[in-house]
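[Q] Does anyone have a clean structure-token version of this?
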Amino acid sequence: EGKDTARFSAAGAEAVAVSAPDGYFILQKTRERQDFQDIIEKLDDVDLYITESRSRGVLPTLILDRGLAAPEIDERTAALFAKEKSAQDTEEILCCDLDDPETAAQITLFLMGRPLYGADGIMFLTM
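[A] Here you go.
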């Protein structure tokens, strides 16, 4: 906000780029929404991609249910994190407490291809 790149973009530039000693960014206007998989392929040396989306994509999802609306559970849902038991709780979906970041981390590591068992043979996560 208030920098040349923001002004160039507001003036109609199709793309603006900033390069700094510790990184860069590119903002490019497109006629169509770009596929998320195509965008993440352009990123280098990143182990984990986290995106916020309610309805698009093919990647596994963790649903955070704060009770404000019915959670959108579908075939991509890996786990449901909620404050209270949901009417949508099913045996097919792992349901966890919303305030359990350790379990969220373990599920995320599993989805990244990490084992559910530690070197000691103890399972990190049980259903």
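[Q] Thanks! Anything notable?
[A] The chain has three helices and five strands.
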